[in-house]
Amino acid sequence: MNNEINPDRQLSECQFFEGSESQPLETASSAAGEPATSADQLANSSRVEEPGWSEADLLDYEEIDVFYPNDEPIKLGEIPTVKDRFESLLKNRLRIEIQEKPPLFPWETELGADAIYPDVISDPTVPNPSWWNAQRENLKWSTFLPETVFADLLTPCQKVLHSTLQQGAKLVEAVESFFPQASDLLNEWAGRLVLGEVRDPELNKLQLPPYETANQQQQMVLLLLAAREILDTLTITCFLNKSVGLQEWQTSLGLLTVQAQYQTRDYGNCLMILAKLPAGGCLQLKGNHGEITARRTEAGYVTMELVDPEPNHIYRLNVLFYDCEQNPLCFAIYPRMMS
Fold it and tell me: What segments bear the compositional bias annotation Polar residues (predicted)?
């Protein structure tokens, strides 16, 4: 029957357990290199594998004592082993922590999932005020403005510079962000400025003070006058086979000079640009049919030529200095067939 116990089997099991208790698992014969007994084989086969541990986990659970004041002195040769083991565990722990939480740059507060580190500089159209603000001292009405206001005005002026809007509309668009709730009054003053009604006698009546102490109407006039100066200075109009158009802009690195000429050659009409850079940089001329670029690594002259440009079309000329964190300064180059 299945429930009955075999007497021989029961006796064999008792003898096995009695023998295993009276002898260690490792016998003298095993230590001497002889084959293991059946008890040894059974003990080894029934041993449960311990779960695997990574080296990083060992650092949390393994205690390494370099000094043992209450025990026997460490034998010569054991300290380097302990030291190497400790360094290995420490390096693995640091590697895992860096992988799980990468270190941040000094300017970062946290590492976002969408963090992007571009390896090229984009070509924005808004200037960096730190390099272009020096021109404020060369413009009559800009001297009335604080440097920060001039920088804030230069940004929208750059945006409307290549627009096909009329001058009055350009001025309003350049200044409207300063007076979002007074568009009617702003349009009125822009119209008077374009028509020439704002002359010195009129300005004297207004008694224009510095921008910080001026009222809203006075600030409008100051910004409109400064915006017109900026747009005029950044625009170079050149007529076919006529005189050269030239403009200057003071930068923090020195005076920037740009001139344009529209001439007839044997191979067609050509738009020629000549710029004198106060430092190494590049010029980039953009139009509807592509772009051309010229550069030099140090201060000096840079030239470029565009064959058969589109007449009566405004081209964008970007000026960018090397080794400087700035956005380009943009000129509007306007080749015209006739005056």
Answer: 20-30
Its domain, for residue 216, covers: 129-233
Q: Does 298 fall in a domain?
A: yes
Of the candidates 173, 177, 301, 273, the residue with the CA atom closest to the CA atom of residue 228:
173
Same domain for 207 and 249, yes or no, is: no
Q: For residue 72, what is the DSSP state?
A: P
Give the domain CATH number at 275. 2.60.40
The neighbour count for residue 83, using CB atoms within 10 Å, is 12
Q: How far apart are CA 149 and CA 227, in angstroms?
A: 11
Domain closes at, from 217, 233, 249 = 233
Tens digit of each residue's pLDDT (9 = 90 or more) over 132-188: 999 999 998 898 899 999 999 999 999 999 888 889 999 999 999 999 888 899 999
Clarify whether residues 240 and 320 are in a common domain.
Answer: yes
What is the value of pTM for the model shown? 0.61
Q: How many helices (H) and strands (E) does the chain have?
A: 11, 9
Query: What CA–CA distance (Å, rounded) separates 247 from 239?
Result: 15
Average pLDDT, the chain: 76
SS3 210: coil
* Spatial separation of the C-alpha atoms in residues 268 and 28, rounded to whole Å: 106
84's enclosing H/E stretch is helix 78-100
- The domain tally of the chain equals 2
**Is the per-residue pLDDT at 55 higher than 70?**
no
Residue 277 phi/psi, 5-degree rounding, is: -95, 135
The tokens for 324 are 């400087």
Residue 288 counted as domain residue: yes
